[in-house]
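Let's practice the habit of predicting before peeking. Look at the sequence and jot down your guess about where helices and strands might fall. Then scroll down.
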Amino acid sequence: MNLPLIVGVDGSEPSLRAVDWAADEAALRRVLLRIVYASLWERYEGPALAPEVGSTSGRVAAEDILAAAAKRALRHHAELPVTTADVLEEPEHALVRESRDASAVVVGTRGRSGLADLLLGSVSLTVAAQAHCPVIVIRGNHSNRAVGGGQDHIVVGVADAPTAAVRFAYAEAKRRGVVLEAVRAWRCPMHETVDHPLLTGGPERLHEGRAAKELEEALADAPVEVRLRRRTVEGPAHRVLLAASRDAGLLVVGRRSPGPLGPHLGRVAHTVLHHSGCPVVVVPDVK
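Done guessing? Here is the structure:
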């Protein structure tokens, strides 16, 4: 069964740019695109409607917003199957619920006031933290298109073992026919010095070698048809991935398994969602 791709809209320009990206992705996956408008969105984010929605008053009917979004989706993919839904529910609750039966959920970088292009709104952050499927947040200064934007590779942050995020990245790289850059960050603790008896080659070399070994182990099940580029980089993981995102088409990171307090974003995912130079996918870990 091919699950639909969900995209959340609120009538803003960032959400319509997310529709552009979602339409490309749905066409690549050959799945239905479901456009969801949660009627209580304005309660959180304010009006700020896109010009093509057809009103500057901030008060338009849900069907106008959905019609503008559907038209935008079909602009580049006329044969794409598209459905729309007006949901009388808080937007984050609606999209998390929709995520139970979706291949992925796409949202924009809807922030408040002048921070819209820098920081995510509360809805996007909540969905990324709680969704049951991968969440794709469209941000960065690229073309807002999933294909044809000039970015020729995908970046994935690699943890200690094969993860759902790495498997997602394999599928996306294969689907697009692009290189997958697998990045493993490593740190050399400040207290370690060259005087340590086990560090004859220097502490940096030991930690870098360990990171390279862990990277290879995490990529042990890589499909042969995926073109891999392996990188180990010294530094905090969030800074390493932010740097890698600047010329990438997509950045893939994992989300920790739910703890005692439920699902939540780790520091790395939270930081790249706010500051990445390209769209970010947050993939929940599947146990």
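How did you do? Confidence is low (pLDDT under 50) at residues 111-118.
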